Amino acid sequence: MAEQQSTPASTSQEDPQGDIELIEPALQGTGEEEPPAIAEPAKVMRIGAMIRTLLDEVREADLDEASRDRMREIYEQSVAELSEALSPDLKDELARLALPFSSESPSEAELRVAQAQLVGWLEGLFHGIQAAVAAQQMMA
After folding, report:
1. Bridge-partner residues for 14, per DSSP?
2. pLDDT digits 0-9 by tens, 96-109
3. Which three-class secondary structure state does DSSP give residue 12?
4. Which among 6, 38, 101, 135 could bridge 106 via Cys, Cβ 3.0 to 4.6 Å?
């Protein structure tokens, strides 16, 4: 009797918190896996949560120059860390949207706008991932 081999269309892993299910692409006809859009989803989620919390803090607190400088450093480091976890096309998109501050010490308003823009972009990214996962599940 011949052994039957089956290749699953995809494999999935569930987040321990049950929030997001990642579906890894199946092998294509080329024998290669399609690279993931987000290489480190947990890292992106952590940075997104941190940026959202910082945005709330910036909205509530009066920041002196030292605080604004520190917030600028955190923002720039967050963008750099996010870039490392993204596919090249998403990395390019983030680079176009997350422009550097024009001054060494940005105003509170500049910080709020930059962080709100980054939070909005991340939320859009998460919604896009969820929609893609739902579409894959419907096709399976």
Report:
1. 21
2. 999 889 888 899 99
3. strand
4. 101
